[in-house]
Design a protein that fits this description.
Strand order of the largest sheet of chain A: 3-2-1-4-5-6-11
Number of domains of chain A: 1
CATH topology of chain A: Rossmann fold
Number of strands of chain A: 13
Strand content of chain A: 15-25%
Oligomer: homodimer
Helix content of chain A: 25-40%
Structural class of chain A: alpha/beta
Largest interface: A-B, 30 and 29 residues
CATH class of chain A: Alpha Beta
Shape of chain A: globular
Radius of gyration of chain A: 19 Å
């Protein structure tokens, strides 16, 4: 089964053909993959981000619109005439957000409320929101978490994601603005840069490929649900095409993997023995986060297709080629 | 049993004696009553609000501090040296908040995050937050609602209250800042001005006393949980003195009353036949909102004491005397 970001788009349904789609956060890891998939599905794609020009590889396929998400005029221009808006802009990584929750709220909740006003004024058909399955649930919720698990975020990032879901529901109720919020697990795969706060798979794999020891926060027992970027992209498309009544759905692999086991798998793939250095744990870490995505499967037919070993190998190939190119 | 705002304070526990208490929103309906109760309990009371001077009746008892809640310096000055901070500032009524959710968030979520930063910097011992039992729960939640009912607010006001509860929990977890959030039902009683968005009992009673017909949104079938201001004040004090692990508790009467029945009771009390004019319903109205306060009773011993007929008569006396004085 093909699983790289470049080939996955060919598997997408084609009913987005000719639909005007806006990807907010189009230069990010998920945003770039989504734009490529939408272009492959023959949608008319506009990508929006703070960069003044399109990132490499996107220029030919999608129209690029540079602007600040907290600039109402820029957002109004971006949403004008759009049918489906994919909202993938998030200001900070979960742990960082706790350093300044007010700043996090200013960068996420407030501009999103500006987006909702602009979207209803422009008559946007649907907003597909990238919520966060890894941060909205209570740390002591039963895992895998279903959508009805208690929502008690332990990061400002998660609180903002949850509040935005509720503002989306409010705009739906008040103004008929349609939405689907996907509570996405930890995405990984080709295109994710190592060294970023959320890219733990890319970081561990990159270090293993370079023969360096893994550096892990805590004792490595933290468990996450890693879902391949191609599966996330397919989930976004499924959410855009979904015609049922459910508005909030998990999208994860359903499998829990400890950070330590990821480091070990990365080392094995790189052909070396696992070397792990442990650093002091971060209080923002949920001990275990795994998503039950049965609702999404039942409602949309979506199900994760990329298996872990394959996805990891795929990511390793991309990291090597990216290094070669850089 | 005494139930007016002036006499109730004598029933309060006295263990707040000498404690430095700040009441944010000290000039509001609940804020004034709370200040009086705290003074009667021999606390050292500071009241904060946007007014430049203390409202009548508060000047002798509490220190007044005028300032804007979104001014970090004013808030820092207010919380300096305080042991217990009662946060009663809410920007708008629920229905109004839906006209401009972004403005509501700017006036509630953001300055509250400023407060939390100031409170942790100042080493405040506890924040008691006036959350909203009438707006945080899902409209289709089973009633009376317990604290574990689904939280799906249908107003921006309710979304902000819920988000603030979660930010309080975050600051507790990250910085040890202690808090109790009270999900208060619809407060009524002496001191509440008729004609305000939230003062439906005062408004209906005032019109009945003046021989005017009641004006009701919708068909009057909307059911609310009306809790007397003296009981709310006692709930705040109980929350301030509480030493258990629970942080979010309902505080209501547990009885549901339709708006129509309130209008009828008000007319009967005024000695006339009920006259009701119906106006188009507001989409922000929950059909039924009644709170189960068993958790609060179990944890703190608090229980509502003012019965409805007594509370209504009490409110009527105050309205007449306020009119006489005005």
């Amino acid at each position: 089964m093909p699983s790289s970001a470049d080939t996955a788009a060919t598997e997408l349904p084609t009913t987005l053909a000719g639909r005007r789609c806006l990807v907010l956060g189009g230069a990010g890891f998920l945003g770039r993959a989504l734009c490529r998939a939408l272009v492959a599905a023959e949608a008319e794609v506009t990508a929006f981000g703070r960069q003044s020009a399109a990132p490499a590889g996107l220029a030919d396929a999608a129209r690029w619109l540079g602007g600040a998400f907290d600039d109402p005029d820029a957002v109004a221009r971006a949403v004008a005439g759009q049918e489906i808006v994919f909202h993938l802009i998030g200001p900070r990584a979960p742990a960082e957000s706790n350093r300044d929750p007010a700043e996090d709220a200013r960068q996420s909740i407030l501009p999103t409320l500006g987006l909702l006003e602009a979207a209803r004024a422009a008559g946007v058909g649907r907003i597909v929101f990238a919520s966060s399955g890894g941060t909205v649930y209570a740390p002591d919720a039963a895992m895998p978490a279903t959508e009805t698990a208690p929502t008690e975020p332990i990061t400002a990032y998660g609180i903002a994601k949850l509040a935005i879901e509720k503002y989306l529901a409010l705009y739906h109720r008040l103004h008929g603005l349609d939405f689907v919020a996907l509570r996405i697990a930890n995405a990984y795969g080709p295109g994710q840069l190592p060294g970023t706060a959320q890219g733990v798979v890319a970081t561990l794999l990159d270090r293993a490929l370079r023969g360096l020891p893994a550096e892990i926060w805590g004792d490595g027992s933290v468990v996450r649900d890693f879902v391949h970027v191609d599966d996330v992209t397919r989930a976004f498309v499924a959410a855009a095409l979904y015609r049922g009544p459910v508005t909030v759905m998990n999208a994860g692999s359903g499998a829990g993997r400890s950070i330590r086991s990821v480091a070990e798998d990365a080392a094995r793939l790189a052909g070396g023995a696992p070397q792990i250095r442990y650093r002091a744990g971060r209080p923002a870490d949920m001990p275990v986060s795994v998503l039950d995505s049965a609702l999404m499967r039942r409602e949309t037919g979506w199900t994760p297709q990329v298996d872990w070993d394959e996805g990891l190998a795929d990511t390793a190939r991309w990291l090597k080629s990216a290094r070669g190119a850089g």
